Amino acid sequence: MSVEKLVGIVLVSHSAAVAASVAELATGLAGGGTTAPVAPAGGIEGGGFGTSAELISAAAAAVDRGAGVAVLTDLGSAVLTVKALLAEGDELPAGTRLVDAPFVEGAVAAVVTASTGADLAAVEAAAAEAYSYRKV
Amino acid sequence: MLDADFFRRWMTATTASVDREAERLTALDSPIGDADHGSNLRRGFTAVAATLEKEAPDTPGAVLMLAGRQLISTVGGASGPLYGTLLRRTGKALGDAAEVGEQELAQALRTGVDAVMQLGGAAPGDKTMIDALVPAVDALGESFAAARAAAEEGALATTPLQARKGRASYLGERSIGHQDPGATSSALLIAALAEAAGE
Questions:
Q1: Which of A81, A83, A91, A92 has the most B C-beta neighbours within 10 Å, making it the best mutation to test the interface with B?
Q2: Rg of chain A's alpha carbons, rounded to an integer?
Q3: Helix, strand or coil for residue A28?
Q4: Could B72 and A76 be called an inter-chain contact, meaning their C-beta atoms sit closer than 8 Å?
Q5: N or C: which end of chain A has fewer CB within 10 A?
Q6: ipTM reported for the complex, 2 dp
């Protein structure tokens, strides 16, 4: 798969700082070379905690390279807003998927995997697999 | 028969009611939620009223679809996609007819409520907006006034329940004894429907 066709990653959190920091962490851990496009969509427009449909749509459009977009979310309204946007049909790029994964660990797994040129299904599987890693 | 004007009146009455009751909704959301339900819904329905005035959709379905889209965009909390889905799916079920009957509305609203249950994964008894909406839809076949009474009763009946969905569910038993803010705002939505019908 060519480098132009990397899967994009969108990170949706109630907090702009959390979304931006997790994006930075995941990109940093993906290491050198080409990294997959990652966009944070945190908080609501104008600041404050919450979920913005506009920020999510803009982030998804920004990372879309035609290979699909994996969206990872934290909780509550972030999950519901992405599901509602997907149900709308035309709000998110074709091939956008809500990935069921832990936010931080899933983001790292998704960005590292997407940066190898893996397809959307492989990115989704890698992110979801982060659930099975027990810490204790 | 109910035309686009009726549905615009419903949305306008909801906006006025949410605006009036915003502080009470936020107060209900303080002990068991994150204290923003009133301000979030006020922001959402203010945007709904402004958009309906500007774009003037001319069928019942179009009014609800547009209102739902605004709520998903502007609310910022979980009530945005939930109410947005309720109105959009109801609007979609009404299709592009210029007028709809009361029974058609009751049936379409049931489709909308089913979509909300699917989106949020909530069932009756989970202490959510569903506890007001399901009895309201059941009573809508009878009259708008009956739907309003059923929604209000449903909202009051959430007080002794333990929350099983959303932010309040993290509190476990400590959620017991508080009326659910989402069920309360749902009762406002149904009361505004009765108001639009003059009941």
A1: A81
A2: 14
A3: helix
A4: no
A5: C
A6: 0.89
* Probe site for chain B from A44, A77, A82 (most B CB atoms < 10 A): A77
B82 and A CB contact within 8 Å: yes
Amino acid (1-letter code) at residue B164: R
B40 within 8 A of B80, measured Cβ to Cβ: yes
Question: Residues near B177 by Cβ (< 8 Å), separated by ≥ 6?
Answer: B159, B160
Instruction: For residues B86 and B95, give the distance between their C-alpha atoms in angstroms, rounded to a whole number.
Output: 15
Question: How distant is the Cα of B81 from the closest Cα of chain A, in angstroms?
Answer: 5
Q: How many residues in chain A?
A: 136
The structure's pTM equals 0.93
B80 touching A (Cβ < 8 Å): yes
Closest by CA to A51, choosing from B79, B100, B171, is B79
pLDDT in tens, chain B (199 residues): 999 999 999 999 999 999 999 999 999 999 999 899 999 999 999 999 999 999 999 999 999 999 999 999 999 999 999 999 999 999 999 999 999 999 999 999 999 999 999 999 999 999 999 999 999 999 999 999 999 999 999 999 999 999 999 999 999 999 999 999 999 999 999 999 999 999 9
Query: CA-CA distance, A130 to A120, in Å (whole number)?
Result: 16
B129 contacts on A by Cβ (under 8 Å): none
